[in-house]
Amino acid sequence: MSYDTEHVRNAGDTPGMITGIPTFAELLENPSLASLYTSIRRSGTTTGPELVETTTVSKKTVYDYLHKLEQAGLISKVDHDSRTAVYTAEKFELTLTVRETEVSITPALIEVIAQQNEYPAIERVLEDHGIVTFALAYDLVKAHNKRDVTIRQIASLADLSSGTAYDLVEAIYSILDLGDDESGPTTYTPDDFDEVESDLLEEFDDK
């Protein structure tokens, strides 16, 4: 029999033990850990030796990270008959609500955060503005790719400088391979830019 309570939903008959909550937080702060998780997620299945060959951290660190991610339930072994453990990444969504502001941490967000060492704009936004602003900006950049918002609007809605907003758009375009050419994000500005910004925010809330 499954059950839902105020704090737990979709747990099934035997809810699993989640012991690695700090690991979720570390994914936001440790690009190497985030990158390892992302590598497993992208590959579908992989092994420790394969990760040692493709990552920049030491062999010991790779296996420490694998243990940490497995303990947190973020990865699991899928081939128990093999002499070498085969891992796959688990889907997750960690939702936090503070003072009525809700932010969801997902694998897609972690994929971008994992590249903060290569793209200083990502690290700058995370350090100076925090995860809520970064997640908002991430969603707005994807909306920009659909020409729903301008870079100027992203800067205004996320409270970023125009330069930081452009750098972040450029970084996320590159990581997610957005756009239809190699020229980078366009600064397309519609004639109705002066529309009320709160209406735009409400539109995203509705989605």
TrEMBL record:
Ranges for domain Transcription regulator TrmB N-terminal: 35-89
Source taxon at top rank: Archaea
SUPFAM superfamilies linked: Winged helix' DNA-binding domain
Pfam families in the cross-refs: TrmB
Protein name: Helix-turn-helix domain-containing protein
